[in-house]
Amino acid sequence: MRILVTGGAGYIGSHTVRQLLAGGHDVTVYDNLDAGHKRAVPAERLVVGDLRDIDHLDNLLVVNRIEAVVHFAAFAAVGESVTNPAKYYTNNLLYSLHLLDRCRRNGIGKFVFSSTCAIYGEPDQVPITESTPQRPVNPYGNTKLAFERALADYASAYPFGYCALRYFNAAGAAADGTIGEDHTPETHLIPIVIQAATGKRPHVEIFGTDYPTPDGTCVRDYVHVDDLASAHVLALAQLTPGAKLAYNVGIGRGYSVREVIRTVEEVTGMKVPVKEGPRRAGDPPSLVAGADKIRAELGWAPKYDNLKAIIESAWRWHKAHPAGYEGE
Ligand code: UFG
Question: Which residues does a 6 A CB cutoff place in the pocket of ligand 1?
């Protein structure tokens, strides 16, 4: 298939691009390199451009005779979305709607969308299934849910099929350690704990120790980035006109912040300096995926089904690239 991948030089995008290429697809990566990295994708596949430049995108759709779009390009910092919602509504919703409509006008009938468990907000119970009420608690989640709704309406009215993949906590790196997680600033727990272990930061602060969880710290479902990537490959193969697919993607098991810290210590053999701090606004106590639907319908199964294996792969990347992509 001829596939356009927006945000394909980013963390989840680049791992997906690698799998699509390995599967024989003809991939065009469209990325403004704001959060993406040039070195994360083969140079000959990369077109540097912004989502807001819809004519540039439209031209690519036509000239490259694109048959499917995998849309990652988005801002994804929950806290920033609260203080700067305009940035999120403009990029994650407005520009994304432009892209969607150009797909329609150009007869492109397959669309895979990066969604998030943030669309469920603070659920009353875990595990979270696809029928858990969708009540986002921040602008980031609102923009993702709004776009999912547009996708559903398009699929009802036009010869168009989509799959929204609702990621839980993406983590880890490619098995060979050549591509991995590199955000500036880094806000995600696993890379932060690894940086604290290696002395790149003085300590990790635990955001809240009084949650109603077994050890008082937040519980998350960490899912390996290559397993997220394979979900996109499987979804693309499944899409037909009118398909309205939406799946949670997680391993179905939660780990606390303290368990993450202990596992990083075990994997690296290093001590992690820890400081206990107050809760971070907007963090639900526990987010764990009920991911039976994607297993049953797409035949997806995570290759990395436990935290230790996920952290081992993250550690291989961080060891080989202590300064991320810039250090090369
Ligand atoms: N945490 C700490 N200290 C840190 C960083 C994180 O204790 O320095 C804790 C957080 O409070 C949270 C857990 O570690 O309980 C995981 O935090 P992350 O920031 O790594 O991930 P989040 O669960 O907050 O966010 C992820 C994605 C978002 C997505 C969200 C859905 O990064 O894009 O899940 O809730 F929207």
Answer: 76, 78, 116-118, 140, 169, 187-189, 192, 204-207, 218, 220, 257, 280, 283, 287
Considering the domain 189-221+252-327, what is its CATH architecture? Alpha-Beta Complex (3.90)
Same fold, 2-171+222-249 and 189-221+252-327: no
Q: Which residues are catalytic?
A: 140
pLDDT values of the chain reduced to their tens digit, one per residue, 328 residues? 999 999 999 999 999 999 999 999 999 999 999 999 999 999 999 999 999 999 999 999 999 999 999 999 999 999 899 999 999 999 999 999 999 999 999 999 999 999 999 999 999 999 999 999 999 999 999 999 999 999 999 999 999 999 999 999 999 999 999 999 999 999 999 999 999 999 999 999 999 999 999 999 999 999 999 999 999 999 999 999 899 999 999 999 999 999 999 999 999 999 999 999 999 988 899 999 999 999 999 999 999 999 999 999 999 999 999 999 987 6
pTM beyond cutoff 0.85 = yes
> Residue 17 in contact with residue 29, Cβ under 8 Å?
yes
**Read out DSSP for 130-165?**
TTS----SSHHHHHHHHHHHHHHHHHHHSS-EEEEE
Residue type at position 67:
E
The CATH architecture annotation of domain 2-171+222-249 reads 3-Layer(aba) Sandwich (3.40)
